[in-house]
Amino acid sequence: MRSTEAVRQILRERDATAQAGFNSESIPDGTMADEPILSMDGEPHRLQRSKIARYFAPKTVAARYRGLMESRADALVAEMVAAGRARLDDVSLRYSTEVAAKVIGLTDSRIDRMARHLERLFDQPSFDPASSEPEGRIASIVRQLRGSVPMLWFYLWDVRPAIRERRKAPQEDVISRLLKEGYGIPAILIECVTYGAAGMATTRELISMATLHLLRDDALRARYVQADEPERYAILHEILRLEPIVGHL
């Protein structure tokens, strides 16, 4: 179904739909004492989302992270100019990972290694538990291993060190808040994956797509370079409308 009105109606029926994504629909209810936002629905989901949303609010990002965002962008551009070449997907992954990691609290491990952990974690085949297609025993084991191994590395190398440091010295970030609310390790891990996807994978895609549009269209690039901030935002919003990060509901 490709009707805009049908999609709008589904999105507005928030209490008649259930969360999905990252195979969250296949996690049985009550598996974890602290339910992560990925598997929440209805009012609990809205309440938890409102608590975390302030860390990603535009005013908060501008006040706390604008300096980091600008300095890292300048540094990466300088690297590309010095090298004379670069892979756009690699550069955008490094940039988005470093900025989002600061907001989430994943700052106690190597950014480049964490970026690769997340990339492998997100590169998983989708699984529909309601599918009528039979899945062989070996295929099932392989699918589970492919999903669990990257998750294990992400926890051991990135999430666990951050949790350990924030137990000793809480900061103004997502992990510190989850610890304050008594969340256990499994729930915090899933929350880090969720916000990792929201803050890293999607940002990387937007940066890559916007850059491709600007490189291919000389007139658009000239307009963007000369524009003030509101007009630049308008251009980026139009690119995002034409090339939505989530293109399938």
TrEMBL record:
Coiled coil: none annotated. It comes from the Bacteria. InterPro entries: Cyt_P450_sf (IPR036396). Gene3D superfamilies: Cytochrome P450 (1.10.630.10). Belongs to the cytochrome P450 family. This is Cytochrome P450. It comes from Tessaracoccus lacteus. The lineage of its organism: Bacteria, Bacillati, Actinomycetota, Actinomycetes, Propionibacteriales.
